[in-house]
Structure formats: C-alpha cells, structure tokens
Amino acid sequence: SGNNFEIIIIDDGSPDGTQEIAEQLEKIYGSDKILLRPRARKLGLGTAYIHGMKHATGNFIVIMDADLSHHPKFIPEFIRKQKEGNFDIVSGTRYKGNGGVYGWDLKRKLISRGANFITQVLLRPGASDLTGSFRLYRKEVLQKLMEKCVSKGYVFQMEMIVRARQLGYTVGEVPISFVDRVYGESKLGGNEIVSFLKGLLTLFATT
C-alpha cells in the first residue's frame, strides 16, 4: 500500500478462534506488523479501544472488526478521504451512496436502521451511520474523545461521533459494504439493545 502500518488485534475471549488465527499471522508477518493484545473476557468496546491505543505508534488509527465484516479494501478509500478533506475522523457508512448491508436477517436490519433513525431524530449528529465501528481517527482526536466518552458497548460508537461534533472535529464519510460474518457468532443480544436505548437517552439528556 505504500503506507507504514501495524495491525493491533484485541481479542476479548471471543468464541470464534480469533486469537489462534492472530497467533498464526504473527508468525507469518512478524510481531512488528501483527501485535496481538488479548484480554481474558469481554470488557466492552470502549476499553478495547483504550487498550489498543496504548500500543499504537502511528498518527492515525483505523478501527475495524477482524471477521471481514469490514473489508480491508476500504482502508485506502478512508486514507484518500482523510487527505482530501484533512478530516479528523473518516467513518464508514452503510446508509449512504453505494453502501449497504449483506447477510443480515430482517430483525438485525430493523434494529440497526431503527437505532440510526432514533439517534438522528434525537441527536442530529450530522453523520449517516452512527452504530458502525469501521472508522479512521487522527490519533490525538481519538485520545481526546476517549477521555470524554462515558458509554460502553454499542452506544459507544454513537457517542464518539456526537462528542466529536460537540468538540468541533470534522467527520468525513466513505460508503462501505458490510457483510455479516460467515463463521463465529455475533455478540449482539437483548442486553446490548437495552443498554443502547439507555445510553441514547443519557446522551440526549447531556448533549
């Protein structure tokens, strides 16, 4: 790609064998390119970001799922978009341009669309996809946002964009195709949906 990079893998004891695959990749590509930083159990997305950021040496951080739901082919587009507008954040969007979701059942689509719709109405964040996690951040901006954000789990993605707008950071968007994982299991359950709604109301009350 012509870009200096490192891949930091944070695995929270997921049931899909992520850690074993990461160990094999580390042997192939070397520990300077593949940094495996596992944790014993699921501790939430926000703390995973903080954990990964401690080990990141670059000026920009791309955050993505490691199960190919987020395809690496979009990373060069994120980099191009960032350079084009000197954005602080570039967010992948499933709901704009030729973006889309593939492999989800109707229930998952309704949950995601519904979450985005309610958030747009309540918070008016100026971004089309708030629950996705495929994003590029300027490292110092990510650090500032992490200090401000209080949410855990899936609300966290939303709060990151809302707080970014509050602090005057610029956000660009790149349409992406999200493909549901072929192997392994999704961790989205009833508890996450309830905590999402609670977090949304908290954000509405405090922003």
TrEMBL record:
One CC-aspect GO term: endoplasmic reticulum membrane
Subcellular compartments: Endoplasmic reticulum
Function: Transfers mannose from GDP-mannose to dolichol monophosphate to form dolichol phosphate mannose (Dol-P-Man) which is the mannosyl donor in pathways leading to N-glycosylation, glycosyl phosphatidylinositol membrane anchoring, and O-mannosylation of proteins; catalytic subunit of the dolichol-phosphate mannose (DPM) synthase complex.
Annotated keywords: Endoplasmic reticulum, Glycosyltransferase, Magnesium, Manganese, Metal-binding, Transferase
Entry GO MF terms: dolichyl-phosphate beta-D-mannosyltransferase activity; metal ion binding
Subunit structure: Component of the dolichol-phosphate mannose (DPM) synthase complex.
InterPro entries per record: DPM1-like (IPR039528), Glyco_trans_2-like (IPR001173), Nucleotide-diphossugar_trans (IPR029044)
Designated name of the protein: Dolichol-phosphate mannosyltransferase subunit 1
Native species: Eurystomus gularis
